[in-house]
Amino acid sequence: MHVSAECYPVAKAGGLGDVVGALPKYQNNAGHIAKVVMPMYRTKFLLSHQWEVVHKGYTNLGSWWFTYTIIKESANTLGFDLYLVDINGLLDREKIYGYDDDPERFTAFQISVVDWISAWEHRPDVIHVHDYHAGLIPFMLKHCFRYQHLQLIPTVLTIHNAQYQGWMGWDKSNFIPSWDPWKWGMLDWKNTINPLASGIKCAWKVTTVSWSYLEELRVSANGLEALFEYERGKCSGILNGIDNLVWDPATDTYIQHHYSIEDAKEGKAKSKQNLCDTFDLDPAKPLIVFIGRLVGEKGADLLPQAFGDSFYHIGREMNFLVLGSGFPEVERALEDLKIYAQGDYNAYIGYNESLSHLMYAGADFILMPSRVEPCGLNQMYAMRYGTVPIVRDTGGLRDTVVDFGVPGGYGIRFSQVSVGDITQAIWRAAELYNDKEKMEEIRERMMNLDFSWETSVGHYIDLYRSLK
Ligand code: ADP
User: Fold this and answer.
1) DSSP secondary structure string, 99-168?
2) Ligand 1 pocket mutation pick from 6, 291, 327, 383 by most atoms within 8 angstroms of CB
3) How confident is the model at residue 88, as a pLDDT?
4) Theoretical Cys-Cys bridge with 138: which of 46, 155, 158, 328, CB 3.0 to 4.6 Å?
5) CATH 3.40.50.2000 boundaries in the chain
6) Nearest CA to ligand 1 atom 26
7) Fold of 2-241+454-465
């Protein structure tokens, strides 16, 4: 049973949604029974699907007693049983996060989930919780008096992003159903209740979405470094997969010109032509794209200067195209650059799923100068579409991209989040583009790589089995 705040396509804010939308599907394909439970937000998916009520319960968040309802999607459209928790007024809102009462919302959600599971006739084999929004569940199963009968259900916590930890003041400790006061240390980190830290302490096993990210968390984890070091024995990294059925240049419904390894050169050239026509770019020049949230984590603030410096130092030998939204000042700087670099640069500020697919298909290179990247999906999508990743040497980017300077390599890696390093990597991309033979060799190598979920599912199943 997966417990998560996000699940694509029901509700997604980032990679967490993609993973929880795909992992259970592939676990079911492999012959297991995986289900997902998440909060019932007021989303398009909710309104456009059929639901049946499977459970109604009555429980409390401190002194507030409430009724919760568990509904299940009737048609099983996602390839796994999907359950939503409805707590009137608390969860059924349009946004996933960002409300003042988020601590109340996610604590009440977790209590309802555990309360519902405690009424099951059969116990789940494993409860797999994702990120801090479900991080208190391992504590509740172990140390809340009324759930003692669930104590032996193994728990796994997967960390998709350790920056967000769900901190709550100790004044909210009564939210958690009556618990053994000797265990207060299992909730605490630096004098606050820290649901992510509690999950790390209490879950039977902890995973991160790449092994390099786990290494990095021991030195930089927004205050939890010592905890990751102390608990290293139960932590492991399992790389995310990509949904090869959705992300396939041979069948992708968002692109016009389909291709596979054999005709990638022609297929990509047509998509590139489409992009260049739309965005007033030159198809003869290498096309370098950026797709993602325009935030510091992604290094997006450095893009305008890195593009400007590249034009200045290398010359107008390459084209750039950006798709993303985020910090207003970064959006503004990227808009302003359009005037200076017309014909060689363009940007689409906003979210556009179909354009992102066309960019993966039509680009020659994708740039990811991330400061932090727990796993990263873009580079894996890009490689499946024959697009060379230019990435900073961090987290999941380090685990999935090998520099083409190394025998058998296929991407471009750089080490610092600095305009200088990014510009130098762009220069290497421009040089590589001129070596047509090498480009083709690299493209073929990348498109033959396997980032499918099947491999990761195997690792998760092995982990679950180790808990028996
Ligand atoms: P994160 O979860 O940190 O944002 P990931 O690499 O795990 O980063 O996932 C990013 C996903 O969001 C990818 O599927 C990417 O294509 C998509 N994406 C990000 N920004 C946009 C955008 N502006 N338009 C379309 N898709 C986007």
Assistant:
1) -TTHHHHHHHHHHHHHHHHHT-SS--S-EEEESGGGTTHHHHHHHBGGGGGGTTS-EEEEES-TT----B
2) 291
3) 85
4) 155
5) 2-241+454-465, 264-451
6) 353
7) Rossmann fold (3.40.50)
